[in-house]
Amino acid sequence: MESSKMNSSAFSFEKIVDTIIRLGVLAVLLMWCFDILKPFVLILVWAVVIAIAIYPVHVFFEKIFRGRKILAVIVLTLVMLSFIIIPSGLIIYSLYEGVNHFRDAFNNGEHLIPPPGGTTANWPVITKPIVEIWQLASDNLQDAVVKYSEQIKEYGAILLIALAGFSKGILSFIVSIIIAGVLLVYADSSEAVTKKIFGKLVGKNSENFAEITVLTIRNVVKGILGVAFIQAAMIGVGFFIAGVPFAGLWTILCLILAIVQIGVGPIAIPVVIYMFSVSDTTTAVILAIWIGITLVSDNVLKPILLGRNAPAPMLVIFLGAIGGFLYNGFIGLFLGAIILTIGYKLFMTWLETDN
After folding, report:
1. Residue 87 CB: number of other CB atoms within 10 A?
2. In terms of pLDDT, which residue wins out, 77 or 103?
């Protein structure tokens, strides 16, 4: 009897040790795989998000090309790449020109912020404080730059690093779009694998969670990122055509503010005021009308692309975008809003699900 108990306990001990060793080897293998894929995790996740978001468009393209899936994917990928590469090239060129202009103005002792133009004398009396602040900033900034030139050079290096991060983010976008195209070619098998993963993670509610994830991604991409891209593109077109200095920089800032749900107004409105001072009246008025249309478009585009129900509270999207930007750089600005929104939706669905 006692020998039977000893054999049983020895067997249990060996089984426990065997299980621990297996789990240890599996943990090491998983960590090793993660370390190998770590540099590509953001790109791969963003590629999956893009593939899910544009799958309905892919189906439409496939119908146009009469079922030729690969041709549809190639054309769709090229279209998306053109939407990224062409505007990004213009923005980077604008930033390059702006930095050169800033450097030349500094070397020649010119005003870094141009003083108010002569037309400001005819502005209403209510705008007088704005003009005075503008004049003060123009005069004082010039003196401050001369006095703190060494510190500005130091922070200028930080700005260059930020611009390099923007370029890196654009490159990541391009690679993610290409990978997303590959995923669309194998969309059927990818869907089957996704369902199996959700089945292992959440069991009987796997289909519900998978559907919520897909729906959330498409809603955020269309209703939040899509509207932000459209508004930033409209702002950028207006700035470039009107000849706004540093148009690329203001466009990027407008894109960031649009994603975090603040809106493009805090950047666009001061630019319009500035153009009324330094530009001809016709150009300034046309730009003001275009900016007004852009600001109003938010109320039109979101109901069309998003529907009545927002994917998450504004605070969740705001924190996701800002946190993603601080943690993962430019690409995290987009991915953070999506990931945190997905987490929020899945958590709320889990709370409402009966065990």
Report:
1. 19
2. 77
Q: What is the pTM of this model?
A: 0.69
First to last CA, the chain: 43
Task: Identify the CA nearest to 152 among candidates 96, 213, 102.
Answer: 102
Cα separation of 81 and 45, whole Å? 18
- Distances from the Cα of 80 to the Cα of 74, 152, 168, 253, angstroms: 10, 38, 18, 22
What is the pLDDT at residue 18?
Answer: 80
Among 317, 76, 298, CA closest to 216? 317
326 vs 242: which has the higher pLDDT: 242
Write the DSSP assignment of 141-209 as a string of letters: HHHHHHHTHHHHHHHHHHHHHHHHHHHHHHHHHHHHHHHHHHHHHTHHHHHHHHHHHHHHHHGGGHHHH
Closest CA to 180 of 52, 61, 34, 328: 52
Separation between Cα atoms, residue 14 and residue 25, nearest integer Å: 16
Rounded to an integer, what distance in angstroms lies between the CA atom of residue 336 and that of residue 331? 8
Q: For helices 247-259 and 265-278, give the axis angle rounded to 10 degrees.
A: 150
